[in-house]
Design goal:
The complex is a heterodimer of chains A (374) and B (424). Chain A contains twelve helices and 17 strands. Chain A has 374 residues and is of the alpha/beta class. Chain A folds into three domains: 184 residues, Thiamin diphosphate (ThDP)-binding fold, Pyr/PP domains (Rossmann fold, 3-Layer(aba) Sandwich), CATH 3.40.50; 53 residues, no CATH class; 107 residues, Rossmann fold (3-Layer(aba) Sandwich). Chain B has 424 residues and is an alpha/beta fold. Chain B is elongated, with a radius of gyration of 34 Å. Classes of the chains: A alpha/beta (374), B alpha/beta (424). Chains A and B meet through strand 1, helix 1, helix 2, strand 3 and helix 3 of A and strand 2, helix 2, helix 4, helix 9 and strand 11 of B. The complex binds iron/sulfur cluster. The site of iron/sulfur cluster has 12 residues of chain B, from helix 7.
Chain lengths: 374, 424
């Protein structure tokens, strides 16, 4: 059977899908600056987003995005570790101010400048702890072309609904490789409808008074209610406070809103073989190798299951449940320290846990097959 | 109290702090300009001046140390209502940290006013020297007096393009001067000189503000230049990035039954990436699935140029290629970049330019002069050669791609055809 019979076939890269999807979901602006391997996203952002501004540096990028977000716009940028590192304080600011935005983090080989043109999966540990206080910053991770489409729109939705910056994690190999693709397979994306605080409400608008953990949003620019955005510890009115009870409750809410509402934003693929005792786990670019390996292993007559996590942070508890239900779990990721398993288990990996890693090279299906066959 | 903009007259500063005067004169100036509190967005930096927020009836945004000019720029970009006034309060410390943001806002002429509270030191953090501290001024980190002269923030902003810049001393009624700055369309910067009683006065006893200001060598005054405020010229946009992707219809057949990985490599400027695109598109038009990835040095105009292509009858999950099934090498650069892989090949085909030394390999070696129609077309010729030798795609499929992309006249197709006719 040949895939390419029906439908609208074309050669596409993941970057194009990501930007188009976000624009359709309601992103209004792309704030860009050049960095390999995120340049295609910048290029498409320029072509597609209603507003595109070229920022002079990484800090300015997230500050401009935050300013735009405070006026009700949804801004997107794309970067790689060297740029992301410089953005972190500003991302913390946006997190504290509760400003929605999406940062596409295209992983490349580190540390530091590393190799700009080599892919990697080395940034998960950083993402786990990049908000001071350990608050979770939502991270969604693409594992194929379809994800570049659907998860990108979800990232925009999640950012707006939970009023938070969101990281869409991907890698050089995903956004810079061209693939034949049937565009008819892409589901419709419904544009997001933004709900603001009812301007006609008489009551006193408090910028950080939350319902279901998330405060109602009002953009700067209207004349009915006073708005305060604050990156320092603040109370419901958005006024700077020391560690008093109300503001500590607010800081605690920032943690809770992500953790308690994360279940609304949990995505993963679980391809289970009921007789399997072994599970392969892989996210991002390595998911492609894992799918390939699992298919081949099944052709050999082996029973094997596959978990592809897409919501990485906060870590959905269901991953642990799934992983614990297998005798052997093989986690494959393109780093040398098994960052995903650290996230799940901490220091002590359970018996039956194995790791397939790689540095500066994509993990191959063969590496995964060999580990599974052991 | 008849100040619409403040909810208290007692501002949270040390006694005698110049920030008090600046805040009150700011609100007075806004009153003179008939603004309502919610017409105003005050963005504050970190520093003593930044704790003004709670006393203001305007919208307030309290950000990071040094970044307020950039944050306010973002707000300005997103504010569709030109009647809104964006005012940034920043200290000399914040202006030092975020100098780049001030330059950028000046350069782009972003609609807002930056009020630099220059009391010559970082007050909130304990009286340290800033980039705006004048030479000879004593701070907690320069006991002998500051060794270097401070930045002239006004001159810098003006050079970067700010249409309105002024430097004034924070003494007496400065509301008129502030009102002029607030009325400017585009970017304006007011540097207000003051002295911090808690550190500045203590560490520089007997010195007066005017004398310190004069000693800095930076004149008081007002500097203007005409510029149109920032406007978002956005150029040509597409409303559908997928709409502009060319659909490739299946009109040809391929006899391929499995999966083939191919590496094509040569020198920059010899059409390798174009050639790889032709193969990929011809494959799709022949009903096959393809992945294609280019690699070349960061200096794209020299050295090797390689493209990796996977071709399959089935959708392709994994697109990495360690050892390819086939390789097309058109130049020395391409050979050097792929030598190890070629040596690792235990079967498959190596199509290599006849001028090159053939490495040890288990692949079937086919040598041919790929430069017969010129070096610039070496890779393009090799694509047709590949079609002929493998049958995975046909020459017709390649020609159709060339035609559809409007490249027929740009490539020496008759010469290629002629040269191909001689291939055995
Ligand atoms: S420390 Fe200095 S700058 Fe800060 S409030 Fe007191 S006098 Fe003003």
């Amino acid at each position: 059977m040949q895939e390419n019979k029906k439908g609208r076939h074309a050669l596409l890269d993941g970057s194009r899908l990501i930007i188009e999807s976000m624009a359709r979901a309601g992103a209004d602006a792309f704030i860009g600056y050049p960095i390999t391997p995120a340049n295609l996203l910048y290029q498409y952002g320029l072509q597609r987003m209603p507003l595109m501004l070229a920022a002079p540096d990484e800090i300015t990028t997230v500050q401009w995005m935050s300013g735009l977000a405070a006026t009700g716009k949804i801004a997107v940028t794309a970067t790689s570790f060297p740029g992301y590192a410089l953005m972190i304080e500003s991302i913390n600011m946006a997190f504290m101010m509760e400003l929605p935005m999406v940062i596409v983090l295209v992983q490349r080989l580190g540390p530091a400048t590393g190799t700009a043109t080599s892919g990697a999966q080395g940034d998960l540990s950083l993402l786990k702890g990049n908000i001071s206080g350990g608050h979770p910053l939502p991270v969604l991770c693409t594992s194929n072309m379809e994800d570049c489409w659907t998860l990108s729109a979800k990232a925009v939705e999640l950012a707006v609904k939970l009023r938070t910056p969101v990281v869409l994690l991907t890698s050089k190999e995903e956004v810079m490789t061209t693939k034949s693709f049937n565009m008819d397979l892409l589901p419709e994306i419904t544009p997001l409808e933004r709900k603001y605080y009812d301007l006609e409400c008489d009551g006193n608008y408090k910028p950080y008074k939350a319902t279901n953990f998330v405060p109602d949003f009002l953009p700067l620019g209207q004349n009915k209610h006073q708005i305060r955005f604050n990156a320092s510890t603040h109370n419901e009115k958005g006024i700077l406070q020391h560690a008093d009870e109300e503001s500590m409750a607010n800081t605690r809410r920032l943690e809770e809103k992500i953790r308690k509402r994360a279940y609304e934003y949990t995505w993963y693929d679980l391809d289970e073989d009921e007789q399997a005792k072994k599970l392969v786990v892989a996210f991002g670019i390595t998911a492609a190798a894992a799918r390939h390996a699992v298919n081949q292993l099944r052709e050999e007559g082996r029973h094997i299951s596959l978990l592809i996590p897409k919501t990485l942070i906060p870590v959905p508890e269901v991953y642990l449940e799934i992983m614990e239900s297998y005798d052997e779990v093989i986690v494959a990721e393109e780093n040398i320290n098994n960052q995903f398993s650290d996230l799940i288990y901490g220091l002590k990996k359970p018996v039956g846990h194995r790791f397939v890693g790689s540095l500066g090279k994509m993990i191959t299906p063969q590496q995964i097959r060999e580990e599974v066959r052991k | 109290m008849n100040n619409l903009f403040l909810n208290t007259e007692i501002l949270p500063y040390c006694k005698g702090c110049g920030h008090d005067l600046i805040a009150k004169n700011t609100t007075k100036a806004l009153g003179k300009l008939n603004y309502e509190p919610l017409d105003i967005i005050v963005v504050t930096d970190i520093g003593c001046h930044g704790i003004i927020d709670k006393a203001l009836n305007t919208h307030t945004v309290h950000g990071l140390h040094g970044r307020s000019a950039a944050l306010a720029s973002g707000i300005s970009f997103g504010t569709d209502n030109p009647d809104k006034k964006i005012i940034v309060f920043i200290g000399d410390g914040g202006a030092t940290i975020g100098l780049q943001h001030i330059m950028e806002a000046s350069r782009l002429n972003v609609n807002m006013t930056l009020v630099v509270h220059n009391n010559y030191l970082y007050g909130m953090t304990g009286g340290q020297t800033s980039g705006l501290t004048p030479v000879g001024f004593h701070t907690t980190t320069s006991h002998e007096g500051n060794q270097f002269s401070g930045y002239d923030i006004c001159a810098l902003a003006r050079t970067a393009g700010a249409p309105y810049v002024s430097r004034i001393t924070g003494i007496g009624d400065i509301s008129d001067q502030l009102a002029v700055a607030f009325s400017n369309k585009g970017f304006s910067l007011v540097e207000i000189l003051e002295i911090c009683p808690s550190y500045g006065v203590k560490l520089n006893p007997k010195r007066k503000l005017q004398e310190i200001a004069a000693s800095s060598g930076k004149p008081l005054g007002e500097w203007t230049q005409h510029r149109e405020p920032f406007e978002k010229h956005q150029g040509k946009k597409t409303d559908d990035l997928l709409g502009e992707v060319r659909e490739i219809k299946k009109v040809f057949q391929s006899y391929l039954k499995t999966t083939v990985s191919l590496v094509i490599s040569g020198s920059a400027g010899e059409g390798v990436q174009l050639a790889a695109g032709l193969i990929s598109k011809a494959c799709v038009s022949s009903g096959l699935c393809v992945t294609q990835k280019g690699s070349y040095p960061v200096t794209v105009g020299v050295g090797f140029s390689t493209s990796e292509i996977n071709i399959s009858t089935q959708p392709i999950d994994f697109h990495g290629i360690n050892v390819p099934d086939m390789a097309i090498i058109t130049s020395e650069d391409g050979l050097a970049h792929n030598r190890k892989r070629i040596e690792s090949m235990t079967n498959g085909k190596l199509m290599i330019d006849s001028s090159l030394e053939v490495p040890k390999t288990g692949a079937d070696v086919i040598q041919h002069d790929f430069r017969t129609v010129g070096a610039r077309n070496a890779a393009i010729f090799a694509v047709f050669f590949f079609a002929l030798k493998t049958g995975i795609i046909s020459s017709e499929a390649i020609l159709k791609v060339i035609e559809e992309e409007g490249k027929t006249d740009k490539l020496p197709l008759p010469k290629i055809k002629e040269a191909l006719a001689k291939v055995k």
